[in-house]
Amino acid sequence: MSKKLYVGNLSYEVTEDELSQVFSQCGQVTSATVIRDKHSGRSKGFGFVEMPNDDEATHAVDRMKGTELKGRPLVVDIAREPERRPRGDGDFGGGGYSGPRGRRGSPRGNQSGSRGRDRSFGNRRDDNDGNY
Question: DSSP strand E in the chain: where?
Fold first, then answer.
C-alpha cells in the first residue's frame, strides 16, 4: 500500500520535479506535489510525496528529515488523513447580509439611527422654557 509523506519547510523556489528527484534517492516516487496558493500561485512552503512501498517511505522519512534543500532543512513525516469536518450541523456561523442598517422594529417608526431626537434646525425639544 502506498504512503503519502508530508514535506515541510520547503523553499518557495522548490519545484515538484526537484522534490520528486530528491526523494527518488530513497525509492520509487509515485507523485510529488508542492502546495500553492490558489490566488497568487506561490508555494505555501510544503508539499506531499507519495511512495508505493511502505518500507521505502519509512526509509525516506528517516533519511530526508533535516536534509537541506535549497538552504532549508526539510521536515518530513508520514502524512495524516485530513480531518473530516461535519456538514449541516445547524450552526450557520452567523454573519451575512441582514438587510439595510437602521432601527428596524422601532416603536417610533423608522428613525434610521436618529435616536429619537429631532434633528431639524430651530425646532429643539430640549429647550426648557417652551419657546421655539
Answer: 3-8, 31-36, 43-51, 68-69, 72-73, 75-78
User: Which residues are paired to 50 by β-bridges?
Assistant: 4, 31
Domain count, the chain: 1
Decide the pairing of beta strands 31-36 and 3-8: unpaired
CB neighbour list of residue 95: distance below 8 Å, 6 or more residues apart: none
Q: Exposed (0-12), middle (13-18) or buried (19+): which is 27, by Cβ within 10 Å? A: middle
CA distance 87 to 114: 42
Q: What is the pLDDT of residues 17-27, one digit of tens each?
A: 999 999 999 99
Collect contacts of 82-89 with beta carbons under 8 A, ≥24 apart: none
Is 25 part of any domain? yes
Q: Is residue 117 part of a domain?
A: no
* Average per-residue pLDDT for the chain: 83
- pLDDT tens-digit series, residues 65-109: 999 999 999 999 999 988 887 776 555 566 666 667 666 555 555
The cell numbers describing 115, all together, are 435616536
